[in-house]
Amino acid sequence: MSGSDKDVPSRDELEQMSTDELVKLGTNLDGVEIIHRAERYTEAGTRVEKRAERQVAVWFTIAGISALACLGIFLFNHWEFALPDDPNYWWYTFNTPLLGATFGLSVLSIGIAMILITKKFIPSEISVQDRHDGGSAEVDKKTIVGLLQDTGTTSTLGRRKMIIGSAGFGLGAFALTGLVAFLGGFIKNPWAERENAPLWHSGWSPIYNSKEDPNETVYLRRDTGNPYQVALVRPEDLDAGGMETVFPWRRSNGFGETEHSRHALMESLHEVRNPVMLIRLRPEDTARAIKRKGQESFNYGDYFAYTKVCSHLGCPASLYEQRSNRILCPCHQSQFNALEYAKPIFGPAARALAQLPITVNNEGYLVAAGDFIEPVGPAFWERKS
To answer: pLDDT at position 3, please?
Structure first.
């Protein structure tokens, strides 16, 4: 808070004060004593001064170039899924790291440039201020403007066109990149495919069956580490109390013999809504399991299949504790009861995990008996449940 009323000049007196007088008045009213103050450069145009100016300009320029590179990667780089033998594979693989590196370098460069301005051009000053509380009076608002004007003058930034130009370029490119990245999320229409939009379905859906066989069987496939190996799951492969992550596979996906087949096999493992937890309960646990209305036939004996995509924020709910029959999402600690249709019992998740209907075909393999009856993952505006 400022000093007593007798120390506060009138409005007319404030208007007539110079910047130096306002600076001195502001420090006095705030109980600040400037013990030491020295200009960075006693003479203008020296080599040291010009070198400092170039250093600041270089970092602002790097910020601008990095921001424009980030913008170019965001707009033009190959971001869609690509196989290892695809010519765009490395561009796809490094898309996110390149976005993070260029955007991060731009932010870092702006920060370094601002620090250099403080260290190279703002006068060196040591001040001591009395502690005080309260809001700002009119005189404080007026004097702070004077202090800012004084800072601008004494820093000599006003006459340094190189720094002003590079700062405009760096900050402008950074702001443009941020704006385009923000607007980019509104450009692609997630509902362009209407009822076949990706948010409504997963890779288990019949809409992804081949046109030649629209009713083809969707098998439960395990990930062996080799994306082109097809390992199907039988009931006897899983011990009581065990859990395994499975993915959809159709005969039309092939066995990796063609490029189309390799792409389908790889996509099956990487599509975000595909992972499913196949859980085999102990017989005594199955006897007391509570099934959700409309999902009474979704399990096959002791075998229950729930999506691995958490209903909170889409994290992988990938941990299963067989003694308590709890499914745990390690990201935000949501817990789901596998004995009660994966109903949430702890943490921020508010909805049960979607359950996949499964059965065994005449070959003895576990297969999907249909798609999820609800969208997988977290909520969105159009979702009604």
So the answer is: 47
Which candidate, 99, 108, 105, places its Cα nearest to that of 71?
A: 99
Query: What's at 230, amino acid-wise?
Result: V
Please state the pTM of the whole predicted model.
0.63
SS3 label, residue 59: helix
Asked if 345 and 335 count as a contact pair (C-beta separation under 8 A), the reply is yes
Closest CA to 112 of 59, 64, 171: 59
Taken in order of first residue, the domains within the chain and their CATH numbers are: 5-184 (no CATH), 194-368 (2.102.10.10)
Cβ burial, residue 84 (10 Å; 0-12/13-18/19+):
exposed
- The per-residue pLDDT for 1 is 44
State how far the Cα of 79 lies from the Cα of 93, in Å rounded to an integer. 8
- From the list 331, 340, 341, 271, the residue with the least C-alpha distance to 306 is 341
- In this prediction, residue 204 carries a pLDDT of 93
First to last CA, the chain: 55
CA-CA distance, 205 to 356, in Å (whole number)? 10
Residue type, 8: V
Q: How distant is the alpha carbon of residue 147 from its chain centre?
A: 40
